Queue: 2 jobs
Job 1
Amino acid sequence: MSELLNITTRERICQIVLNRPEKKNALTLAMYAGLAAALLAADNDPQVRVIVLSSSGDSFCSGNDIADFIAAASRPGAVEAPLRFLQTIASLKKPLMAVVSGAAVGIGTTLLLHCDLVIASDQARFQLPFARLGLVPEGGSSLLLPQLVGHRRAFELLVMGDTFSAATAREMGLVNRVVMHSSLQDLAMLEAGKLAALAPEAVCQSKAMLRSYTQKQLDAVLVAEVKQFADRLQSAEAAEALQAFVEKREPDFSRF
Ligand code: COA
């Protein structure tokens, strides 16, 4: 696992780096488990005040590993690790910052809804292609995205599934700041340093207050979404879309 996730703690900042650049940091079941464990460990480590999630290579995260999706169709229990990861990221006590360079697809975008600060490169690209893949929204996005941008825009993003730019993500409030690609890491670590220098209890209590009103609803939504998602993975529509990805062709839904 350690080679797929690089974890370092320095100056009260725990940095977790997705490190599967050859697959654009697509998340495997093992990576979900490793991420959940790393996030939990950082949240409970008294040396850590801020958690930073970033990536190596030219993409932030291309979503769930498609091969794992295909395998999960015959192994419904395979959604347990993603659910544990989502429950962990949605209930962290400490502030979580994401540093987005390049593509953020599927859960690579929905996980940002659980971050407290998101800094993106001007080259970052976002996409929520769930319906395009014969699937349904996950990661709490069926609740949090309409809350953020309203029904129509959330529908467009989650159902039409077109790619959108860092500027658009900033405008809709998914991203705090868009910076030049070449300064991304430096500026992100500067922000993380500022956050780490603040009064830690005040920061954590503020985060808890901001989340408290939706937390219960979110917990229920995460479980409900995963159940529906697991059902969709077994559908003929999803089978066609996922096979099309593997075969590098457009899916054909005309027979459904
Ligand atoms: N699962 C498994 N493999 C993936 C992947 C994923 N989610 N995303 C990318 N890869 C693999 C590709 O199959 C390719 O593998 P190969 O070199 O063995 O052919 C490699 O990563 C590079 O991807 P490629 O598509 O050639 O890179 P790109 O720069 O042209 O595009 C993305 C990058 C992220 C935009 C594109 O790969 C993509 O759209 N991926 C699928 C995202 C997705 O639908 N995720 C699920 C969301 S629910």
Job 2
Amino acid sequence: MSGGYLLHGGDYNPEQWLDMPEVLETDIVRFREAKINTVTLGVFSWAKLEPREGEYSFAWLEQIIDRLYENGIGVILATPSGARPHWLADRYPEVLRVNASRQRMVFGGRHNHCLTSPAYREKVRQIDTRLAERFGHHPAVQMWHISNEFSGDCHCPLCQEAFRGWLKKRYQTIEALNESWCTTFWSHTYDSFEQVESPSPIGERSIMGLELDWKRFVSDQTIDFMEQEIRALRSAGSDKPVTTNLMYRFLQVDYFKLAKKIDLVSWDNYPAWQRHTLEETAQRTAFWHDVMRSLKKAPFLMIESSPGATNWQGVSKLKRPGMLRATSFQSIAHGSDGAMYFQMRKSRGAEEKFHGAVLDHYDGNDTRTFGDVCETGEMLEKISAVTGAKTCAQAAVLYDWENIWAMEGSAGPRNEGLHYQESVEKSYRALRRLGLNVDILDQSSDLGGYRLISAPMQYLFHPGFAQKVRSYVAGGGTFVMSYWSGVVDESDRCFLGGTPHDLMDVFGLRSEEIDGLYDWEENEICQPGKTCAGLGESYSCKYLCQIVKPAAAKTLMVYGKDFYAGTPALLENQYGKGTAYYVCADAEQAFYEDLYRKLAGDIGLCCPAPGGLPEGVELTSRETADRIFYFAQNFSEKEAVLSLPKGEILYGKNSDVLKPLENLVLVVKK
Ligand code: GAL
Ligand code: ZN
């Protein structure tokens, strides 16, 4: 995404207004006023593009693309596979999904087609090919948007067959499958691949290896579907970059795997501002921006966000003044090369007529939201020098899809909630409070180049992961792992001979038992006599408490209560040139903040803001060959006083005081 400017625009649905050309005329005028430079077209246009099977009608789209181009507006062109026309479902009922209870759906909704169906794949291939032939070289078209928010699974006979094929490839023999899935349990042994069925509430739910492989299959099948769409565009001669819009906390598709198949990561960002404190929402959103950037370790694109309220959250909260700019700014700060919206204009009817938009049913340019969009457009122009700048991080947090699938599916120490996401966010937040850029990695990522890695709850170890951690620590890295780690292999089979598997010497301990706490219970992690500087005397902990047997590790803190009071709760072990820490329980936020401040200090990772960050202030940076851009934002409810590195102000006021929701960009020459 070069060209030196940040994208500003969003999803535009002119197909809903073809009988009112004056509306489309107004749109262009307003887009120009708001410094809109890019729109996404065609996401849900299939019925207008192919009203009857094989009868394509592209002239209207061409006219719109041409007009946008004449007005200096570029296009991200979607393939329409996110929702299908009626005729397609009527003619090829196999495209309709079957749910886990084996019921076939009827026509309606979107994102609900069988991704295996040869008929669906063929119809999609045909229309994608024609779109690429017609528009693949249009100068306005900058990028392809493949489908929309890939999600869901289908349990139809075609998918069952494909699943069996996938399993045969993975295991070769049914004996190997039985062994990996431990099917002797309850006599569920398979005699042949033909007997295998996807997990179902009316069937098999007790074999975790099956559950895990089904999730892998669904993810792979989704990616495969996307790849066949990309192939159609490429075979039709278009070499424009491709993206697909990813989602917040969406775990059905392994985004680390998917990202390898696209040119640019993009995602849809809909924070529920004001549901929690500003700071909490900002941190959660920041985490997902960082996931998206880390998937390809490259700038990404926030391709959807709401200019106003959404209409699908429990409460449709208006964006208060400054919030739209802050949301857009935050995405750029974390590595987005643009700020885009859903939607450019509100539909007249149906489900999304009340969803926030740049233009609403009243056409004027004197709405509050339109004013906010104009301000954002101006801001993006002022900071366009950051386009393409990279984010360099020395700290990382591990977040692995397969680990999450396994942990959540496995009947274990707390079926009322493992609070995994929360524990990841606590570590992330602690590192971010230090003003450090943080990458998010999965177990397949390269750990080299990071100084400090936090790995909360790595229950499942991918083959080779333990060896990676060992080399990382031996080579001088600081690695913090927490309870419930290294427990099972990639088939959810327990490791024999002690855990954390293959790393007991690296951490200098063996995990022995794990205690699940009721929601209302608490224990504490403490250091009577405060022997370890930088850490407090005591912190509360909840949910899960791992009891360990130390070997070489040094105990820094112990449990304060219950029958395991006095046994280790935080341990440190020197291994090779590095240090491995083991956190035994789910401690309160303050614990992680103190721990990571101490560890960062020990290895000389410093906050770029001398004196540290006030509560609620986010600091990130992006770099080019010769410049570092610092982004500061105040997500607290009060003014924050901040001392920043010396540099030139690119955006914002030249002052040490940041008001709530105020944003600042500072440039420092390298
Ligand atoms: C996204 C979706 C858009 C629109 C939007 C509303 O998830 O991709 O098409 O529905 O939500 O917030
Ligand atoms: Zn299916």
